[in-house]
């Protein structure tokens, strides 16, 4: 007995042996329960005898293989009280499906079949994140999977069987590799086979993918993610029951090949179900069927046939006029039966509907004329209008016959993507299409409730159709929502949604690859009553709502000119031959091309949006620590900005994405973000700031998240400014350009750089250099200033003028090295502090090279090191990004005094500008090389060039000519 105790619960292995003594009247503890033993207990020798109270479960199973995957069907272990229950397993994923039927004989004229599919988080070992930690209302995916099971099993119930039936499928465990929806459909078929409910199954459901042109049977989720085809196919042994397709413009020929492969693979599910039902199935119960007697049917048919034919042969009737005329016929027959035919009154609506069906089908088969007078392959009249609501991001109105749909497009931030709490597949989707079918579209009164299975199914079908032509996420990162409102319904509203949604996306400026259109194809067949085989049939293009109701098939096909993107097939009889399904693809293509032609006439390319209404999206990069400042405690600061501006902000790892309704809102958001966390400072960048203090020499401005910069008096205006307070004041908001950083670490800002340059009265450009009246001794200026001035000079005078001017006279400019500048600065400080000329020279000596980008030099006002003073500071900035002494390009160490006209030296490209190159000659000396017209400008920073000093500019800058490149 001790061994039994150890097997049952290992945690109870250390129970004191005294508790197992028989004289205390205790039995061994099993499964954590303690009970009294009977007066006569079996001895240890009788271990093979059956234990009292133990029940052995009798289980039955079938194993088979499809698409290199092992599949198991098992019954008898779980849910044994259900009318039928089956557990289907594929690898580590298991799905339980049960079926039950009501016992009473309710009076109704339809089959109340309910199919529920549920995915609970325990199947993956996860606790739900909801407040109650429970699963709530059915999610969209669960509703769609329920429809996927319902559609193929419903046609196989016998005619007149109106007992309530409920099928429930739930996922017991999921490894994330297989989609449980196909497994649930096959398990439901097996459960119906085991039950005593009359049903014409079994069915087989299979999924087909295509990777690199090769079809894959039962693809995994990873394989499905790279597949350009997702085909779900359901069938009996010889007929098709259901199809559901999502594809990336697959041709009709390739789709037909996939269907031909899917049918024999799906049939492999049938024999295991039949064998399992033979071993463990119940005897089918005799249920009462709601049948109509021949006498009553003939009586109603004689009264209704001629009036109904008169209505259906008149093409002038509209939808509601036709409906009112048919309702009047029903009321007339009702008054005729009130004399004493109670049985006829009970079944009157159903019988009249059957007569209508016979009349319509007979006329289409024999004459080829439809209810509204159209030919079989004729599409109803079309009306398209894009951009009818200009305030929205995108809108379109699409009408086909009496069916009318209004589609609108709204763009959002990536964070607006829908979150999906499913066991398999992606965790979110950025493209959403929500379909709405309000009661007024059919002139009815109804109550709006929550998620509707039909609305979810139609919206998902249109979503699949349009998803194939959307640009990739890295090109178009917006979250996109299409809202489809059915304004009037007379058939194929889901396909009208595809057409309207495609035009609305174009109207929103989204770069679609192609327009997508869709329509429904119907089938009218004549069946041999003895064999059940189809004798004759007609395929109808663009069916009406009445033809959908009275026909055999609703085959919705959507696609582009290049191929099919989505399909949904629903049928009413117990299967349709696959050959007829494949034949229906060709009239659907013909009708689709006609619709695409009308849509392209209205809008054929993405529309250029008006800045007032078009949304804006900006993606900025920051460190995670910086983003925490923007989010604030519990996201309060981020929400505040969104509430104040109406924009949306999404924060991910190091990335901030902002989506605004228009450019004005985007500027407001960016200004707030910049003020809180700032942006990476770059020379040439324009920033908004607020003046915090005004000095005699300029103003200090706070900008870019609390950083401060100096707006010097010389950068206030292109005109001469005598006082800073005449131009700016404390608290004033300005747009300023960053022009560099001085030796003390201050960020230099400019107001005049953001303003247009005034023109002179003589129409001479202000950029034209003016010859100096006094030949002063100038020191080496900042390289950016020199380059800009040289470019300005070259833009007006040209290289020939510069060369001729410089050769005509000896340059009156002294070129000095950094060491000479340092020596002069020391002498100025020691000698005459009050002398204006010395002070001017000292200030001029302090001019140094500004790095090309503050981000590259690693400087910012927050984290810049304290600048050094005097010689050390100047040397630090001059030597920044410089080479060591062995990088000297001349044969002897270069100095300012040694550089002469005609001297050839080896230099390095320090900077590439629009009109030429800034060259590093060594020892802090810079020169400029101007591009020749038509010269190939494939230079890179760091390239070595052999150059010759050909002249000097008025500022003492060496003007160089190219000798050759150094390899």
UniProtKB/TrEMBL annotation:
Location of the protein in the cell: Mitochondrion
Enzyme Commission number(s) of this protein: 2.7.7.8
Alphabetically ordered keywords of this record: Exonuclease, Hydrolase, Nuclease, Nucleotidyltransferase, Repeat, RNA-binding, rRNA processing, Transferase, tRNA processing
A biological-process GO annotation: mitochondrial RNA 3'-end processing
Location of region: Disordered: 788-867
Pfam entry (one): RNase_PH_C
Catalyzed reaction equations: RNA(n+1) + phosphate = RNA(n) + a ribonucleoside 5'-diphosphate
An example molecular function term from Gene Ontology annotations: polyribonucleotide nucleotidyltransferase activity
PROSITE patterns per record: S1
Residues annotated as domain S1 motif: 684-752
Main location: mitochondrion
UniProt biased composition (Polar residues): 829-842
Family label: Belongs to the polyribonucleotide nucleotidyltransferase family.
InterPro entries with a match to the protein in the record: ExoRNase_PH_dom1, ExoRNase_PH_dom2, ExoRNase_PH_dom2_sf, KH_dom_type_1_sf, NA-bd_OB-fold, PNPase, PNPase/RNase_PH_dom_sf, PNPase_PH_RNA-bd_bac/org-type
GO cellular component terms listed in the entry, alphabetical order: chloroplast stroma; cytosol; mitochondrion
Ranges annotated as biased composition (Low complexity): 852-861
Protein name: Polyribonucleotide nucleotidyltransferase 2, mitochondrial
Entry keyword Iron-sulfur: no
């Amino acid at each position: 007995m001790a061994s039994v105790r150890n097997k049952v619960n290992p945690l109870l292995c250390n129970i004191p042996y005294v508790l197992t003594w028989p004289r205390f009247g205790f039995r061994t503890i099993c499964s954590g329960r303690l009970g009294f033993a009977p007066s006569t207990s079996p001895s240890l020798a009788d271990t093979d005898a059956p234990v009292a109270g133990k029940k052995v479960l009798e289980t039955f199973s079938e194993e088979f293989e499809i698409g290199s995957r092992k599949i198991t069907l098992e019954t008898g272990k779980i849910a044994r009280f259900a009318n039928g229950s089956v557990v289907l397993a594929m690898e580590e994923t298991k799905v339980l499906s049960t079926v039950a039927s009501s016992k009473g004989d309710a009076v109704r004229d339809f089959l109340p079949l309910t199919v529920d599919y549920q995915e609970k988080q325990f199947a993956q070992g996860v606790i739900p994140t909801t407040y109650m930690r429970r699963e709530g209302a059915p999610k969209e995916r669960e509703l769609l999977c329920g429809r996927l099971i319902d559609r193929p099993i419903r046609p196989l119930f016998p005619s007149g069987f109106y007992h309530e039936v409920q099928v429930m499928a739930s996922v017991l465990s999921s490894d994330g590799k297989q989609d449980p929806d196909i497994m649930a459909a096959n398990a439901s078929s097996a459960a119906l086979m085991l039950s005593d409910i009359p049903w014409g199954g079994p069915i087989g459901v299979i999924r087909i993918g295509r990777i690199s042109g090769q079809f894959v049977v039962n693809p995994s989720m990873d394989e499905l993610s790279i597949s350009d085809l997702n085909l779900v196919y359901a069938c009996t042994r010889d007929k098709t029951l259901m199809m559901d397709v999502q594809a990336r413009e697959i041709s009709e020929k390739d789709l037909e090949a996939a269907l031909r492969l899917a049918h024999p693979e799906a049939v492999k599910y049938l024999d295991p179900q039949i064998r399992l039902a033979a071993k463990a199935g119940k005897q089918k119960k005799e249920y009462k069927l709601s049948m109509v007697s021949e006498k009553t049917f003939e009586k109603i048919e004689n009264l209704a046939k001629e009036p109904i034919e008169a209505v259906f042969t008149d093409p002038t009737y509209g939808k509601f006029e036709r409906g009112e005329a048919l309702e009047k016929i029903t009321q007339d027959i009702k008054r005729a039966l009130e004399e004493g035919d109670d049985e006829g009154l009970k079944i009157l609506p159903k019988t009249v509907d059957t007569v209508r069906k016979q009349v319509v089908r007979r006329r289409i088969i024999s004459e080829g004329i439809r209810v509204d007078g159209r030919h079989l392959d004729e599409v109803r009249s079309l009306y398209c209008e894009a951009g009818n609501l200009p305030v929205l991001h995108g809108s379109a109105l699409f009408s086909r016959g009496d069916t009318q749909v209004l589609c609108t497009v709204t763009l959002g931030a990536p964070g607006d993507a829908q979150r999906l709490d499913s066991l398999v597949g992606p965790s979110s989707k950025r493209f959403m299409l929500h379909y709405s079918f309000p009661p007024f579209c059919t002139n009815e009164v109804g109550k709006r409730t929550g998620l509707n299975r039909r609305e979810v199914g139609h919206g998902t079908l249109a979503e699949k159709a349009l998803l194939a032509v959307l640009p990739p996420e890295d090109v178009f990162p917006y979250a996109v929502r299409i809202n489809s409102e059915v304004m009037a319904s007379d058939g194929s509203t889901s396909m009208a949604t595809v057409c309207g949604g495609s035009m609305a996306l174009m109207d929103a400026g989204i770069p679609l690859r192609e327009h997508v259109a869709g329509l429904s194809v119907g089938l009218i067949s004549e069946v041999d009553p003895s064999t059940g085989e189809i004798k004759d049939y007609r395929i109808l293009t663009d069916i009406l709502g009445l033809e959908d109701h009275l026909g055999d098939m609703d085959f919705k096909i959507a696609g582009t000119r290049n191929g099919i993107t989505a399909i949904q097939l629903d049928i009413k009889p117990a299967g349709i031959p696959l050959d007829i399904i494949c034949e229906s693809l060709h009239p659907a293509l013909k009708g689709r091309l006609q619709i695409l032609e009308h849509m392209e006439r209205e809008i054929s390319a993405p529309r250029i949006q008006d800045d007032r209404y078009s949304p804006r999206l900006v993606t900025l990069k920051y460190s995670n620590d910086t983003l925490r400042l923007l989010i604030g405690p519990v996201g309060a600061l981020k929400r505040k900005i969104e509430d104040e501006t109406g924009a949306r902000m999404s924060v991910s790892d190091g990335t901030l994405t902002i989506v605004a309704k228009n450019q004005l809102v985007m500027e407001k958001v960016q200004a707030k973000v910049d003020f809180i966390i700032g942006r990476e400072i770059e020379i040439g960048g324009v920033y908004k700031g607020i003046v915090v203090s005004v000095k005699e020499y300029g103003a200090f401005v706070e900008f870019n998240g609390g950083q401060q910069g100096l707006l010097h008096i010389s950068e206030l205006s292109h005109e001469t400014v005598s006082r800073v307070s005449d131009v700016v004041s404390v608290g004033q908001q300005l747009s300023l350009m960053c022009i560099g950083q001085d030796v003390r670490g201050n960020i230099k800002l400019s107001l005049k750089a953001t303003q247009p340059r005034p023109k002179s009265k003589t129409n001479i450009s202000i950029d034209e250099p003016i010859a100096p009246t006094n030949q002063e001794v100038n020191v080496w200026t900042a390289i950016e200033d020199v380059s800009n001035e040289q470019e300005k000079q070259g833009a007006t005078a040209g290289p020939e003028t510069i060369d001729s001017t410089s050769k005509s006279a000896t340059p009156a400019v002294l070129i000095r090295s950094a060491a000479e500048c340092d020596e002069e600065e020391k002498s100025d400080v020691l000698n005459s502090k009050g002398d204006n000329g010395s002070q001017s020279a000292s200030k001029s000596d302090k001019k140094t090279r500004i790095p090309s980008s503050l981000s590259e030099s690693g400087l910012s006002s927050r984290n810049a090191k304290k600048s050094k003073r005097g010689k050390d500071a100047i040397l630090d900035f001059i030597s920044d990004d410089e080479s060591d002494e062995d990088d000297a390009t001349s044969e002897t160490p270069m100095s300012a005094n040694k550089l002469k006209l005609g001297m050839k030296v080896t230099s390095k490209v320090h900077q590439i500008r629009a009109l030429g190159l800034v060259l590093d000659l060594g020892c802090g000396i810079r020169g400029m090389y101007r591009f020749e017209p038509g010269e190939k400008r494939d230079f890179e920073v760091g390239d070595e060039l052999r150059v010759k000093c050909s002249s000097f500019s008025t500022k003492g800058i060496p003007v160089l000519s190219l000798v050759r490149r150094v390899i």
